[in-house]
């Protein structure tokens, strides 16, 4: 069912067209000529032109109230699958004689068949339906508000507004498990520590102490030597993880003009990692460095999941267009101050400049274990692109030399597959 935007939320722009421009001048010219020449026929013609000049001013602006309903053939397609989109526009207002509609196709998807545009007239309660096909790209793609242009009967006044129906195409492979570094919280979970306790992996033995569980006594040694020895296992604790998305101006790089930016891939990766970590009983949070200071502290639960999804899909800090300027140092200082000592950090960044390398190394050095997932959108095209590729490789090398695990994600491959091939980097 379509979700209608409220009047306050919908942008509306009213302006006059040039369709009847010059009519007043013609009427004045004809009237003046008729008076000078004393010709009644010319004066009558001038009166007709006056009527034409007055007509567009009497027509007024059209009332536009539309609902949009959009369906897709597959909302979870595979990479480069063709998805059919069918859009129905219904007129909830008066008669619209000249209506033009451009559907809100996500800028990261390409139309390969049909057209997302429609031009028609609609009676009250009437509707029109059109369809087109797009090629799915890996990631989460939300349709933006459609553009609507309507003119009045004379064509002299034009109203431009928007119409919205929430539609999402998500092309993803679920991440079954994310291997984390050994920094963990005090709560029971899945990260193995170097401390003895009641886990599942053998750690060592010690002399029996009153209060030890009888299930942890080495009964075989007791039978052989009579000693009471307690078995210890590596304790498992939950992780506290913060996902940090690099949405600075420098991060809005792409492999081509019509391709998704690295920020789009980082948002997609954050969504997948968040779900996987939350499903593994880890406490996970979100932060965005860029246009706005976004902070969601690590936590668990369905309500927390909903808040994270709202950030990833609706936050102004993660819109498709880059900010005008990069964040100041104060934003990074606030991020460091908010980090608890037992929180590890996963940066999601294309590493398009040296700044994120420096921040990652600094946070890791202060005791918060850092890992990096870096979507690779560089290409072998122009000399400039080749240089960007070489510089990125150098930054990857700098991080690895600092013992910071890096997942170099070729965005043409599923993230889940890339993570599976680089698990050893996450378990240092």
Secondary-structure map:
Blueprint: E1 12-16, H1 23-37, H2 40-59, E2 66-72, E3 82-91, E4 96-102, E5 110-114, E6 117-122, E7 127-135, E8 139-142, E9 146-151, E10 157-163, E11 168-171, E12 188-197, E13 201-207, H3 219-225, E14 229-237, E15 240-247, H4 262-279, E16 283-290, E17 294-299, H5 302-314, H6 329-338, E18 343-348, H7 355-365, E19 370-376, H8 383-401, E20 406-410, H9 415-421, H10 423-426
Parallel strand pairs: 15-16, 15-18, 18-19, 19-20
Antiparallel strand pairs: 1-10, 2-3, 3-7, 4-6, 4-9, 5-7, 8-11, 9-10, 12-14, 13-14, 16-17
Concise summary:
With 428 residues, the protein is an alpha+beta fold.
Could you please describe the fold and organization of this structure?
The chain is α+β, with helices and mostly antiparallel strands. It has four domains: 17-59; 62-171, Immunoglobulins (Immunoglobulin-like), CATH 2.60.40; 188-237, no CATH class; 241-426, Rossmann fold (3-Layer(aba) Sandwich), CATH 3.40.50.410. Helices cover 29% and strands 32% of the residues. The strands form five sheets. A six-stranded mixed sheet has the order 17-16-15-18-19-20, sandwiched between helices. It has a five-stranded antiparallel sheet with strand order 1-10-9-4-6, with no helix packed on it. The longest helix has 20 residues, at 40-59. It is elongated. The model is unreliable at 1-9 and 184-203 (pLDDT under 50).
């Amino acid at each position: 069912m379509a979700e209608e935007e409220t009047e306050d939320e919908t942008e509306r722009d009213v302006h006059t067209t040039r369709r009847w421009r010059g009519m007043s001048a013609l009427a004045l010219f004809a009237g003046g000529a008729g008076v000078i020449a004393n010709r009644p026929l010319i004066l009558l013609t001038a009166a007709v032109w006056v009527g034409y000049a007055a007509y567009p001013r009497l027509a007024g602006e059209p009332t536009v109230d539309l609902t949009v309903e959009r369906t897709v053939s597959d909302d979870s397609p595979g990479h480069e699958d063709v998805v059919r989109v069918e859009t129905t526009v219904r007129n909830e207002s008066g008669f619209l004689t000249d209506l033009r509609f451009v559907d809100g196709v996500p800028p990261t998807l390409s139309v390969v068949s049909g057209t997302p545009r429609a031009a028609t007239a609609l009676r009250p309660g009437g509707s029109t339906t059109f369809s087109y096909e797009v090629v799915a790209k890996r990631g989460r793609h939300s349709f933006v508000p459609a553009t609507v242009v309507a003119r009045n009967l004379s064509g002299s006044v034009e109203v431009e507004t928007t119409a919205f129906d929430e539609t999402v195409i998500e092309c993803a492979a679920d991440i079954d498990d994310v291997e984390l570094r050994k920094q963990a919280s005090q709560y029971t979970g899945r990260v193995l520590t170097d401390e003895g306790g009641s886990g599942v992996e053998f750690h060592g033995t010690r002399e029996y102490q009153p209060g030890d569980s009888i299930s942890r006594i080495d009964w075989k040694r007791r039978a052989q030597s009579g000693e009471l020895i307690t078995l210890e296992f590596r304790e498992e604790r939950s992780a506290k993880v913060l996902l940090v998305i690099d949405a600075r101006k420098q991060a809005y790089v792409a492999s081509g003009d019509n391709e998704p930016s690295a920020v789009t891939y980082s948002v997609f990766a954050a969504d997948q990692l968040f779900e996987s970590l939350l499903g593994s009983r880890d406490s996970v949070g979100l932060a965005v460095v860029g246009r706005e200071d976004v902070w969601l502290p690590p936590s668990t639960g369905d309500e927390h999941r909903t808040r994270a999804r709202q950030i990833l899909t609706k936050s102004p800090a993660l819109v498709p267009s880059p900010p005008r300027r990069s964040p100041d140092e104060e934003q990074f200082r606030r991020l460091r101050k908010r980090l608890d000592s037992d929180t590890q950090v996963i940066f999601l960044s294309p590493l398009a400049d040296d700044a994120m390398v420096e921040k990652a190394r600094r946070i890791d050095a202060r005791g918060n274990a850092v890992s990096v997932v870096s979507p690779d959108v560089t290409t072998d095209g122009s000399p400039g692109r080749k240089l960007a590729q070489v510089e990125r490789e150098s930054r990857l090398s700098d991080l690895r030399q600092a013992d910071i695990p890096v997942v170099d994600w070729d965005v043409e491959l599923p993230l889940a597959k890339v993570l599976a091939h680089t698990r050893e980097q996450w378990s240092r």
